[in-house]
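dude i think i finally got it to work??
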Amino acid sequence: MKANIVLYGALIANLGIAIAKFIAAAISGSSSMLTEGVHSLVDSGNQLLLLYGQSRAKRPADAFHPFGYGRELYFWAFVVAILIFAIGAGVSIYEGWSHILDPEPLRDPTINYVVLGIAFLLEGMSWSIAVREFNTARGDRGWWEAVRRSKDPAGFIVLFEDSAALLGLAIAALGVWASHWTGDARIDGIASVAIGGVLAAVAVLLAREAKGLLIGESADPDLVAAIWRLVDRRPEITAVNHVRTIHTSPDTVFVAVSADFDDALSMGRAESLIEEMETELKMAEPRISSIYIRPEKQSDAVVYPPPRRD
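look at this
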């Protein structure tokens, strides 16, 4: 998957950043720097989980999972969203609130600014890789539409994580500066709570998208429309009742077609026609892994209108 370059880039960056942030937090006593370290550590774990999910999803189909294990990636994407919320946001808010109630004495913030600058540079590089890959995948679609329709969560999860990380770094820098400028260490704790709020919002958004993929989402409307046209153009098909699709992995689609066959067709010709249509559909769209074509009179079938093309 192309998203691998995004995951490996983010993993390397976050591991280095997490170590630097924890060292800076230990030296300076900054609450927001500590929460940023936890944030980077959680992000590193998330990338490892997504890489693990990708590996597990590539296992071949077997008797227990006849359509393969592709959707296991969606499970791990949902776990990532939960971890961001429970650990990333939870620890940040708790740590920040603790420092608001019991602020630590201010220390020299120089190390914080150095680490934040390096972290911003590394996160920016990871973010630029994620944006480039995401732009390639989304084509002419808008950003939000591309996220909603994406079937590969690795790309947009890293993009959201890196965006949240850059915003968190800006908040942490502002919190450190404001704490020393005002002499009030509680502001640093407030910054930690704000970082936790950003992470919680991102986690909720990612959980929503991962839930849809885990339950099962249909293929792109353009793909459904293409399948519909290929079936409907056959003279032996009097009507296409419906075309149902579901992603069994980011790159594979299961297709179920209900069509009204000409009553004059013999059983042998109908069987040959189904084989011909299956072959044609798989050649036209490599993402189609399995096809089920059911002859069904329109009067007895569930009928959907043809999909609207974008």
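The chain has a mean pLDDT of 86.
im so relieved honestly
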